[in-house]
Design a protein that fits this description.
Length: about 300
């Protein structure tokens, strides 16, 4: 049996402990022998060896059987609990293996892309009713750490984070493509213009998410502005997507959205202008060691 305790030059094994527990519960070497299908001399030898290793007297032997000593009773109580816990752990592990298959999905907090993601998860739940789905909202840095430390199997992220995941060896692809849009609240002074011109933005505030929420957003937005010659004179760092949403409603600036992940993209309170045929949207990222989970086959990321 595997070594579980070492005392100087002597070892206590799981076999010795189990034999000791059976003898203690039957209070008789003969009955323990029948239970264990081991000869009585072998059981006596095992108990004697255990007493030698521990340096403790475990039983008071008499013609009727064996009675636990005080020290033997303490060891029985503690070792019995330990063996029971071992059995429970084994049964739980078998339960997970045989029944509780699961998949862990991370979704950005304050995320409006749920209109694209949730139908897929719903379909997955209906076609795989025996699979537990663990879904959690988190900010981008948390999602990055989570997939790196095996907290998530699949995450969904704004497409502007592609460079980060690609450069770090993760498998990813554009799960849902949508045009890159410029969003302005309808209360903004320039929103009522019949014709929109980028020159109108030269004196307006560009709203940008902070690095701790969207680490790659700054560089992405600046590249878009340069590529499409979008002028800006001031930049305002907002605390999150919801804060950007409120600022736009109040006419306090404009926001560049990577596809359909911004809360305002589904609202009538905004004017949205497509910048070009460039595509942004929702990125699907999975573990480096996993196979490619197609949109309708998240089951490839299931834990068995």
């Amino acid at each position: 049996m595997d070594l579980i305790y070492h005392n100087g030059n002597s070892d206590i094994t799981l076999n010795q402990i189990y034999t000791f527990i059976v003898v203690a519960e039957y209070g008789n070497f003969t009955k323990a022998s029948a239970e264990l299908h081991i000869s009585q001399p072998s059981i006596s030898k095992t108990i004697s060896k255990l007493e030698e290793v521990t340096g403790l007297s475990l039983f008071i032997r008499n013609p009727r059987g064996a009675i636990l000593t005080n020290t033997g009773r303490i060891l029985y109580q503690e070792w019995k609990k330990a063996l029971d816990a071992t059995q429970i752990g084994y049964e739980k592990a078998c339960s997970v293996l045989n029944h509780n298959k699961f998949i862990r999905i991370g979704v950005p907090r304050s995320f409006s892309g749920s209109t694209q993601i949730f139908p897929i998860i719903q379909e997955f739940a209906q076609t795989c009713p025996d699979i537990e789905i663990h879904m959690e909202e988190a900010d981008s840095p948390e999602l990055r750490r989570g997939i790196a430390c095996d907290k998530y199997d699949v995450i969904f992220a704004p497409s502007y984070e592609y460079d980060y995941y690609h450069s770090n060896g993760y498998l990813s692809r554009l799960f849902h493509a949508a045009p890159i849009e410029l969003c302005i609240g309808k209360s903004h002074v320039i929103a009522g213009r019949e014709f929109f011109s980028k020159d109108l933005l030269k004196d307006e505030t560009l709203l940008i998410l902070p690095e701790e929420i969207a680490p790659d957003y700054h560089s992405f937005i600046l590249k878009i502005c340069e590529k499409h010659q979008i002028p800006y004179s001031s930049v305002s760092i907002v605390s999150g997507l919801q804060a950007a949403y409120i600022s736009l409603i109040r006419g306090q600036g404009y926001f560049l959205s990577s596809g359909s992940w911004f809360p305002g993209s589904c609202s009538d309170g905004f004017n949205r202008y497509q910048l070009s045929t460039d595509k942004g949207g929702i990125l699907m990222v999975w573990d480096k060691n996993s196979t490619n989970p197609s949109v309708n086959e998240l089951k490839k990321c299931i834990h068995y």
